[in-house]
Amino acid sequence: MSTVVPERAVQTLMNPASVAVIGASEDQHKYGGRLLKMLLSHGYRGHIMAINPVRETLLGVSAYPHIDVTPVVPDVAVMAIPQPKVREAIEACAARGVTAAIVITARFSDGGAEGAVLERDIVSIARSANMRLVGPNCLGIISPAHRVVLCPSTALVAEGLPVGRVGFVSQSGALMGTIFDKAKEIGLAFSHAISVGNQADLELCDFVEYLIGDPATAVICTYIEGLKDPRRFAELAARAREAGKPWLAVSSGRTQAGAQAAFSHTASVAGDRAVFEAVCREEHVTLLDSPLTMIALATSLADHPATQVSRIAVFSPSGGEAAIAADEIESAGLRMAVFSDATRTKLADYYPPSQAANPVDTGGRTVGDGPDVVGESARIVADDPDTDALLFAITTTPTLHRVASDVADALRRDPASPTPRKPILYVFETGRLADTARRGLLERGRYFLNNLREAVDVLAAWHSRGSYLPPGRPVRPADCPLTAAGCAAHLPGKGTYGEGATREWLGRYGVRTNEERLARDEDEAVAIAGELGYPVVLKVASAGIVHKSDVGGVKVDLYSDAMVRDAYRRIVTNVREHAPAAVIDGLSVQTQFKGRLEMIVGARCDAAFGPIVVFGAGGVLVDILAARAIARAPADPDHVIALLRRLPLWPLFEGYRGVRLDLAGVVDTVVRVSWLAADLAARQPAGLDFELDVNPLMVADDTCCAVDARLRVAARSD
Ligand code: ADP
Ligand code: MG
């Protein structure tokens, strides 16, 4: 069955030559009424056909009783009709040869099992006729850039459809409408905004792909509830990055409760959400908490795509407001710019010398209210080499009506363009009193925020983009055994592997492990200890016991034969008491390796994004020290180092109170574990699901060693 490639259908949807509005009406209380009206009132230049069984014209547009009898085949049909009528309408569109249909109607898979069946039906009807679908349960498409509005949102009733350079794809229709309305009020505008609804056919990524190639779009924004095709998401993110188009996202579901650590800690610390966030970071997709700050950042990035932001200059007519802003900036991980002597000297023309610094209290100036003072201050500050961006926190002041416009004019990159020479955020802390000032900015094509916290969020998210790494090129360590991924014979098959067996697999991948042997009785334990050399560690070996120390199954610091015998007996007693059902295979006698830090290095196969490694503080503290880093496997050493840098334990690798741990060894271990993970995930024919914990990896000053590990391998369910 051939289908219209999504790309072509999306091109048509975003700029159709003709549109049929099914269920069109004149009643503005109805979806079908607003659909028609919006198309007309926002200046659509193509051919509109209203479909209505009883009318000849609607709002001056020719109406037809059925899509079969329109004078031309419409490129796109849009419908907001009762759910029971949708199937028939889709059949009619399919039969007529429509390229794509937008189904606004809800109560499909969003409304239960019956709706889900109907949804599958309409998709297959469309597919068999080579037609593509948007929705159902969506709010359609708003394209200011093309003057195409296929959206019944009341947000569009107001006049004017400002054109911006931010493309927005939303999984929530109401959110798109709401943001559209609010954005307009504060000077934010879009190239295109698309609501994808249930994504029964075309999905978020189809439209992101369009935006990547769209010359009218400089920055891509998305609201994501769940990805239909996570791998495609990652591929497109790489393409957006290569195209130099920033991609921002708000994604709900942040507070996913971690799964209980049944088998591995990895599964609980590297849950789906944590992996999604890690992938976004790797692929340079910036996550924000609120849609409005996302659109604001996108708008600023459209003007300054290559600018990195960390040092902020603050100015305000209120010393108090300026001080609060400075605090917020510092606590968001940004830095207050330190002005150069030249900047301070220039500012001293207007301010007392002690105040000619960051933050600039423009209310404290020593000169009068000359029209240029605040604008000139902004220009001086913008020219300061230590300033990446400016934050103008506007409070009541006698010149309130024009102060923001003065600054906007003073900062123009050139007289013809309102784009400022450096990023600047305007925040009005004032109420309606500042409405004239707000209008002044809107007239200049500038946006503003009404809340300091939002502005700081924008700057903080911008700052986070500065720590993105170039994409890594993982190289398989020379002595890792496999040369081709998927070579089944060299990899563990399905099953649960305790410490002994897992060590062997780790050993084959070049991970350093300590020496151990299994003893079946006390005498044997003493003999092995003698061969290994004291001190030794004794641990229970039993397929039925996952967390050995929980059942009193681990004894460390054993320095003599007598201690080994004693420990042997105690372990057996403890295990019989705490895990009576477990069959004891024997006791592992192993060399003791003392490190200064215990780390966890884990791996698992994420259902969405494939194999990952996770690493951070581990050992018995694994449950309480939460900070961990996640990377996709195989991992690149530079990337691993960059992630380690962000962990609270990083100072231990740089030199902290005389401690300087084996960074190279830890990175090497993470990389090797990542290759094992990648090979397991790629194991033919279908790849394997797995959970692996190395916990702890003992880390000393110049060496490190895995002293415990477990692995579970299963068939992949997807
Ligand atoms: P489990 O995680 O199953 O409870 P471990 O083998 O990780 O058991 O042992 C628990 C703790 O004992 C480790 O976190 C570590 O502190 C210590 N330990 C275990 N094996 C060794 C070893 N070979 N050398 C030094 N300390 C060890
Ligand atoms: Mg352990």
TrEMBL record:
Gene3D superfamilies: ATP-grasp fold, A domain (3.30.1490.20), ATP-grasp fold, B domain (3.30.470.20), NAD(P)-binding Rossmann-like Domain (3.40.50.720), Succinyl-CoA synthetase domains (3.40.50.261). The keyword Iron does not apply. Residues 503-539 form the ATP-grasp domain. The keyword Nucleotide-binding applies. One of its GO terms (molecular function) is metal ion binding. InterPro entries: Acyl-CoA_Synth/Transferase, ATP-grasp, ATP_grasp_subdomain_1, CoA-bd, NAD(P)-bd_dom_sf, Succ_CoA_lig_flav_dom, Succinyl-CoA_synth-like. In the N-terminal section; belongs to the acetate CoA ligase alpha subunit family. This is Acyl-CoA synthetase. It comes from Paraburkholderia xenovorans (strain LB400).
